[in-house]
Amino acid sequence: MTVLGDGDYRYEELDDWAELPDGWHFKEVADVAVDGEDRIYVFNRSEHPMMVFDCEGHFLDSWGEDLFSRPHGLTLGPDGTLYCVDDDLHCVQRCTTAGEVLSTFGVPGKPSPPQSGQPFNRPTKVAFDPANGDIYISDGYGNAKVHKFNIDGNYLFSSVEYGTDCGQFNLVHSVCTDDDGRVYVADRDSHRVQIFDIRGIYVDQWNDLHGPCGLHINNGLVYIGQILTELTVNSTYPNLGCCVSIHDLTGRRLARLGDVHPGEGPGQFIAPHGLAVDSRGDLYVAEVSWVTYGSQQTPPREVRSFRKLSRIRQ
């Protein structure tokens, strides 16, 4: 048994938890979401982009085969629908849990001009104001913005500009909110998480991170997936990403999950990109292992990209 973490935050790693149909594979998993019945929605980049499992790993359903181009972010909305972000199609599609498209933010395949600040150019993730359902969309690769919409989808405002100063963004990779409505933004390539109020005013930032990609808040805990370095010169250095860290809402780190070196072995991560937690506190970790690692192998090969970490109770 491989155990990750320490103290109150110890997890058993279940790397083969998901029971895939014969001949199916994930290729790589961009994000994951858990609904109120602990069904697990795995948003991946294979021929079957949305796979659904129960909390024991039994396969339940799949959909999205003709709907998505490059899955990126997945968020369960307050009404139980799924907000599916496709950065290649430059849009967000709101779907039922059975795969019916109910509405779309943006026009699929028609991006705004790069660096224009207009929605959307390669968006990444969706979050919600817990008080009124207002919608935040991080946008992402072609812009350095977080856009805010009301519950009816009407545009309200966007963040300010590119940069490394407080309140500015480099690469906006993810967004989420806490129970008080504060907005947490993974400013990935500035290696920080920035925090804002509901008006978009800067509040604080957390540093001491490496490439924060995945960002998830559950029951007062902040889970941050940190990816490996993209540079050859420091690719073997320890403690540079390749982990999931758990923090309280003040930013204090409570645990680090993952070996200090990147890799494919037990307890090792490569690129934790999406995170979700079920009602029992078990953690699901999606990794973009193909694009960051597997495609660079000789010959290219699929690398583990999804696992469950079962929380160990004292």
Secondary-structure topology with pairs:
Layout: E1 3-6, E2 9-14, E3 29-34, E4 40-44, E5 50-53, E6 59-63, E7 71-76, E8 82-86, E9 91-95, E10 101-105, E11 123-128, E12 135-139, E13 145-149, E14 155-158, E15 172-177, E16 183-187, E17 192-196, E18 202-206, E19 212-218, E20 221-226, E21 243-247, E22 253-257, E23 272-277, E24 283-287, H1 289-292, E25 306-311
Q: Look at the structure and give the mean pLDDT.
A: 96
What structural class is derived from the secondary structure elements?
A: mainly beta
The helical percent reads: under 10%
Neighbour order of strands in the largest sheet: 1-2-25-24-23
Binned strand content: 35-45%
Q: What does the main sheet amount to?
A: 5 strands, antiparallel
What is the quaternary state of this protein? single chain
The span between the termini is 16 Å
Strands, count = 25
Helix tally equals 1
Radius of gyration in whole Å, from Cα?
A: 18 Å
Describe this structure in words.
With about 325 residues, the protein is mainly beta. Helix content is about 0%, strand content about 40%. The chain has one helix and 25 strands. It has one helix at about 290, and strands at about 5, 10-15, 30-35, 40-45, 50-55, 60-65, 70-75, 80-85, 90-95, 100-105, 125-130, 135-140, 145-150, 155-160, 170-175, 185, 190-195, 200-205, 210-220, 220-225, 245, 255, 270-275, 285, 305-310. The strands form six sheets. It has a five-stranded antiparallel β-sheet with strand order 1-2-25-24-23, with no helix packed on it. The radius of gyration is 18 Å and the shape is globular. The protein starts with a strand and ends with a strand.
